[in-house]
UniProtKB/TrEMBL annotation, chain A:
Ranges of residues in domain Acyl-CoA dehydrogenase/oxidase C-terminal: 220-357
Source organism, top-level taxon: Bacteria
Name of the protein in question: Acyl-CoA dehydrogenase
One GO MF term: flavin adenine dinucleotide binding
Naturally occurring in which organism (per UniProt): Bradyrhizobium hipponense
Pfam family, one: Acyl-CoA_dh_M
Automatic annotation (TrEMBL), chain B:
Record-level GO cellular component terms: plasma membrane
Acyl-CoA dehydrogenase/oxidase N-terminal domain ranges (all copies): 50-130
Name of the protein: Acyl-CoA dehydrogenase
One Pfam family this sequence matches: Acyl-CoA_dh_N
Cofactor(s) for this UniProt protein: FAD
Organism: Bradyrhizobium hipponense
Record keyword Nucleus present: no
Family: Belongs to the acyl-CoA dehydrogenase family.
Secretion signal span: none
CDD domains: ACAD_fadE6_17_26
Amino acid sequence: MNFDFSDDQKQLRDQARKFLTEKCSPKAVRVVLDGKAPYDKELWKGLAEMGFLGVAIPEEFGGAGAGHLELCVIAEEMGRANAAVPFSSTVYLAAEALLIAGSDAQKKKWLPAIASGEAIGTLALFEGKGNPSPKNIKLAASNGVLSGVKKPVADGAIANFAVVAARTGTGGRDSDISLFLVDLKAGGVEVKSLTNLDPTRGQAELTFKDCKAEPLGAAGEGWSILTQVLDRAAVLCAFEQVGGADRALEMGRDYALDRIAFGRQIGSFQAVKHMLADMYVSATLARSNSYYGAWALSTNAAELPEAAAAARISATQAFQHCAKNNIQVHGGMGFTWEFDCHMYYRRANAMALGLGSLSYWEDQLIDRMRKKNAA
Amino acid sequence: MNFDDTPQEAEFRANARAWIAANAPRQYEDELRKSSLGRTQLKNANILEVAKAWQKKKADAGWACLHWPKDYGGRGASPIERVIWQQEEGPFGKLSGMFIIGHGMCGPTMMAFAREEHKRTYLPPLASGEKVWCQLFSEPAGGSDVAGLRTRAEKDGDDWVINGQKIWTSGAHYSDYGILLTRTDPNVPKHKGLTMFFLDMKSPGVEVRPIKQASGASDFNEVYFTNVRIPDHHRLGEVNDGWNVSLTTLMNERMSIGAGVPTGFPELFDYCSSLMLDDGPAIENRAVRSKLANWAVKASGLRYTSMRAISALSKGERPGPENSIGKLVAGSMIQDVATYALDLQGAVGVVSGPEDAEVAGRFQAMLLRAPGTRVEGGTDEIMRNIIAERVLGLPGDIRVDKDVPFNKISTKGRS
């Protein structure tokens, strides 16, 4: 047993951290936060040049062919830096869906474009209120033509293509759902940007009007593919959340050391110390659950569904907990636009919903634990 | 990152499994499996005797204190091998409870500070469970503030004479030996006047009085010392350097990871899997599932945190105070879990007698024992201080008694 990343993977982490510290300062993130750019194009280009966008994409499709443990390491650093790029939509969702279900031609068309930074992809799943469920998918597909509305779609306004979940059967069963690949620049899709909790990652409403689409994976297999994609993305997002939680904890710790009140460092008050200790506890639990998820993801283990749900819940809780208490440690200054605390608070709460809410994943975890016990 | 055994580890596992299958006291397996915090006992046997017999059997075959050197009764095994053993030992590991303090704290302290001849004399019977050890640190005046202890040791010829009182001493009533932290110089600040010894608990002048706990049971004791004589060669470390010696003991407590602190989660999940509520199975109830999921990720998070520490240990890295999270998380969790299990039972949750209560009253027993877990071995608050100061690097608490000679420190709260 060796329950840790390898030295090479740790080196990659250092490399990613160094790169992001240089190219993704809070100042750079703020350009997007303030609405002056839809995402950080320079950074996106740099990530492609570093080989980070295609780190888990096989070499034959233009990637680095490293693997998912390497992607986890980079994900953590992306979360830490609060990067304002469509990384999770493109790399965790679109690329994973293509890797699982794409035809050779589809992979050849899109994966090299992802790795090189030319194509931004996303997953169009949600249709308003509710969590992932075949019953909530109303957007209809017939004869390769899609009609309906998806909302919210992460990075939908800047994406070149989307994986779209559509109803091909008449009931709300798993087998009534199929996936389609849509070139968003080819017409047939109306895009509307949505103001959202975290302006550093855009959300959009996509209206498909008799939009041409090609199937991704076999008809009726959509839900099964989606479940796999969401599990894989849950682990990768968990690493972003762990990175964000750690950074928020660090910011709180640093401020508690620097700030003097009542003639003392505020970090010498037990009320503050214990709050930070509790943040450390939740961040540590999340990291450990995520490591297990990384192992399951990288080996495609039978434990992946359970491990992914546990990582998702634990990391979501930890990031929310650390981000909100980081503001608390900062006091009034933490509630200003000028301080960076709210960027992590926004990101933490937006990420808590992105793949389905916490209560959805709690439900999933219990189902999966019962299944394992029954087996 | 992998969970596979190496060929050597696989061989070790196979040997351990085969030996356990042939030698473990199988007649108690079911009872041990069902035992949990607050209720680890056997119906028709004295658990202490069963535990001692199992430990001796293990020692004779080379399966006791696996990580200790062979010369001192161990096996010289790697940290991973120790974990493999624990996995294989399963419910029989619950029989090790009475040895945890001796094996986890007293033994390593002896190894670091005792004379060679004492190590060879005292450590093998400690490993084999023939002799049980306790740790005499806490006092009425020094719990969290252990350096505030008042038990005196005064030099008299080649002996030291001990007078004072210890409290919360686990297992003192069945212990043969103990390690003892005393005050040897009250004229210097409190951390600088302490000295550590080991002693025979049967020495004249040692009196053990069990404490009746809030749960009704008695796991802990008061220990009184009246002119107890300890020879100087039983001193551990230098005179007045006892604080540093005790830090070694506590550091080793953190090294003794792997066994895992009970969280109550497996018991609760098991219970909810078969429990029927008014509106259907508990496990299908939305509120129950949410609670279970939240505890599930804490329990798994602790499990994997401990695996990360073992990986670090096996690479020769020293696990740090971050392992304090285990007790901190599990202590309050098991209390919450027990409270919730009773809530699910409704009015009948009040019944705690094993014959009449739900699932033999295991959650009632857990509830009543749980407050102790948040206090013993460092309160939740001390654990948070440790994390804040030693992991996060926050300032220590302001200590008004830091530079004051011990005998000048105020002892009155309100006058």
